[in-house]
């Protein structure tokens, strides 16, 4: 129940990657983790607990050994990674659009959402705004969240689209433009949205330099089912993993090695950014740690004694479409997290790393399942294959099975968050 409560809180807080990192930072601070900055010298202590915020949307946290490592005990470095972003709509610059007194906001699609699930929902606006400051290289960065739902994207009535129930392709530039409100005749303007944003932030309109703002579903998580078997919520992909990793690194007790979690941004758009798993960021973090711990000469040795968990959601068997699942591997909601495998290496798992995880789960009586795509269907990828190509270590792709993945509102089994968190904890402290 404790982990479910932590997940619910993150689902409510984590409306953008900025807010996800902020919420996770808060938990880490409360657990005694100290903040570090990339542009400052690190003075690390044995047994210390630290975190690093990178560009506001990527977060590292790590714990250090209390005693010297044992040469016969591997891996010295235990790593786990997840991602903070999710498919959604992002607001474009010069966003104002108006049509017959309707105020609208120009948006673009981020990642691969199920577009029609964003229609007819109460939507909010959140993200980061850059405001003019006295120092040109240090603009004031402000987190923003609308205090209420301010947008919606109305469907076209069936009377005007009689074929809608046969399936309709939505045009991203026409059909997904949200309504912001009505423009009174006496206030017709070309910067209605910017005026709203300036008023909400209590700044001059001309001082808003730029923004990174997302449209998010304001609906809150809820239990579903006669026995609360399911959790229905926006952003289960991938805040389930972020929550489990933060909880595990807080709870795990390990004295003879480094535990590290990396919560990367931009997985949904390929990871190859300065905040993504496809950058040198993880490699650089490990080199920085080696230097701070006085282990530069042993860095490669430590590196190849490490192991990586790539933690992202999996597909669960859909009861209305069981034929979409593999014929012999059919994970269902509520029966434990999934170990994901693919011979194409879209999941970076191999049998050695799987066997390590299975033994940990068997010892701790932690339920798990295996997921493999149907042979005639191409599945999605994760940051695991990308990160492990830059850091070639034993890697396992794991995650909670979902239904309605990439919908504005997804579905998971209530018990699965506990199995995932317990597995990552066991991995960190074995």
Folded structure, characterized:
The protein has helices spanning 2-13, 17-30, 192-201, 236-251, 281-292, 299-304, 351-364, 383-390, 416-429; strands at 34-36, 49-54, 58-63, 77-83, 88-99, 102-110, 123-131, 140-145, 179-182, 208-217, 222-224, 230-233, 258-264, 307-311, 314-315, 337-340, 368-371, 394-399, 401-403, 410-413. It is α/β, with parallel strands linked by helices and 430 residues long. A nine-stranded mixed beta sheet has the order 1-2-3-13-4-14-18-16-17, with helices on both faces. The chain has a six-stranded antiparallel beta sheet with strand order 8-7-10-5-6-9, with helices on both faces. A five-stranded mixed beta sheet has the order 11-12-20-19-15, with no helix packed on it. The mean pLDDT is 92. Strand 5 (88-99) and strand 6 (102-110) form a beta hairpin. It has nine helices and 20 strands. The longest helix has 16 residues, at 236-251. It folds into two domains: 2-86 and 235-429, Aminopeptidase, CATH 3.40.630.10; 88-217, Roll (Aminopeptidase i, Domain 2). Helix 1 (2-13) crosses helix 4, helix 2 (17-30) runs parallel beside helix 4 (236-251) and helix 4 packs across helix 9 (416-429).
The strand line-up of the biggest sheet is 1-2-3-13-4-14-18-16-17
How far apart, in Å, are the first and last alpha carbons? 23 Å
What about the largest sheet? 9 strands, mixed
Averaged pLDDT: 92
Total count of helical runs of at least 4 residues: 9
General shape: globular
Tell me which CATH architecture of the largest domain applies here.
3-Layer(aba) Sandwich
Computed Rg: 23 Å
Task: Supply the number of structural domains.
Answer: 2
What is the CATH topology descriptor of the largest domain?
Aminopeptidase
SSE order in H/E notation?
Answer: HHEEEEEEEEEHEEEHEHHEEEHEHEEEH
Q: Roughly what fraction of the amino acids lie in strands?
A: 25-35%
The CATH fourth-level homologous superfamily of the largest domain: Zn peptidases
Poorly predicted regions are none
Q: Strand pairing plus helix content: what structural class? A: alpha/beta
């Amino acid at each position: 129940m404790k982990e479910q409560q932590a997940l619910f809180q993150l689902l409510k807080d984590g409306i953008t990657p900025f807010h996800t990192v902020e919420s996770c930072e808060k938990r880490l601070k409360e657990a005694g983790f100290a903040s570090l900055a990339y542009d400052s010298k690190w003075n690390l202590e044995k047994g210390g607990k630290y975190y690093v915020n990178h560009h506001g949307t990527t977060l590292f946290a790590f714990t250090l050994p209390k005693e010297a490592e044992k040469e016969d005990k591997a891996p010295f470095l235990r790593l786990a990674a997840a991602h903070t972003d999710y498919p959604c709509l992002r607001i474009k610059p010069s966003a104002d659009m108006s049509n017959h007194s309707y105020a609208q906001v120009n948006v673009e699609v981020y990642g691969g959402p199920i577009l029609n699930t964003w229609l007819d929902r109460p939507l909010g606006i959140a993200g980061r705004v850059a405001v003019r400051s006295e120092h040109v290289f240090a603009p004031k960065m402000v987190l923003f969240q609308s205090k209420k739902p301010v947008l919606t994207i109305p469907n076209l009535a069936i009377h005007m689209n009689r074929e809608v129930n046969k399936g309709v392709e939505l045009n991203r530039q026409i059909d997904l433009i949200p309504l912001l409100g009505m423009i009174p005749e006496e206030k017709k303007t070309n910067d209605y949205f910017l005026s709203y944003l300036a008023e909400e932030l209590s700044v001059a309109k001309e001082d808003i330099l730029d923004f990174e703002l997302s449209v998010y579903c304001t609906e809150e998580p809820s239990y579903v089912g006669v026995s609360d078997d399911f959790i229905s919520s926006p952003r289960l992909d991938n805040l389930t993993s972020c929550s489990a990793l933060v909880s595990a690194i807080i709870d795990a007790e390990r004295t003879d090695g480094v535990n590290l979690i990396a919560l990367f941004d931009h997985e949904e758009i390929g990871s190859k950014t300065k905040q993504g798993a496809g950058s040198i960021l993880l490699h650089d973090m490990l080199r920085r740690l080696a230097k701070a711990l006085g282990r530069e000469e042993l860095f490669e040795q430590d590196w190849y004694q490490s192991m990586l968990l790539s933690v992202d959601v999996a597909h669960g068997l859909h009861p209305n479409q069981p034929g979409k699942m593999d014929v012999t591997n059919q994970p269902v909601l509520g029966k434990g997290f999934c170990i994901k495998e693919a011979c194409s290496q879209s999941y970076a798992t191999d049998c050695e790393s799987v066997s390590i995880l299975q033994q940990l789960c068997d010892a701790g009586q932690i339920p798990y399942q295996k997921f493999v795509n149907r042979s005639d269907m191409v599945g999605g990828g994760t940051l695991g294959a990308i990160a492990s190509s830059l850091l070639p270590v034993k890697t396992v792709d794991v995650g909670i099975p979902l239904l309605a993945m990439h919908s504005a509102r997804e579905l998971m089994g209530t018990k699965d968050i506990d199995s995932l968190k317990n597995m990552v904890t066991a991995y960190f402290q074995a």
